[in-house]
Write a structure and sequence with these properties.
26% strand; single chain; 2 helices; alpha+beta; globular
């Protein structure tokens, strides 16, 4: 099971309807709303991500 990075809900990777690849990793979402929120600002939700050159 994967954790939706927006709401924290557990999502089954095998049956997940909503997923998105970001920086080489696939993220899974419980709904289209959570997916769209992530896509609008992925770096806000990815822990440990730091901008390249700042």
């Amino acid at each position: 099971m994967a954790k939706d990075p927006i709401c924290g809900m557990e999502v089954d990777e095998k049956t997940a309807k909503y997923k998105f690849e970001y920086m080489g990793k696939t993220y899974y979402f419980c709904s289209a709303g959570c997916l769209e929120e992530f896509k609008s600002n992925p770096s806000k939700y990815v822990s440990g991500h730091k901008p390249c050159c700042h």
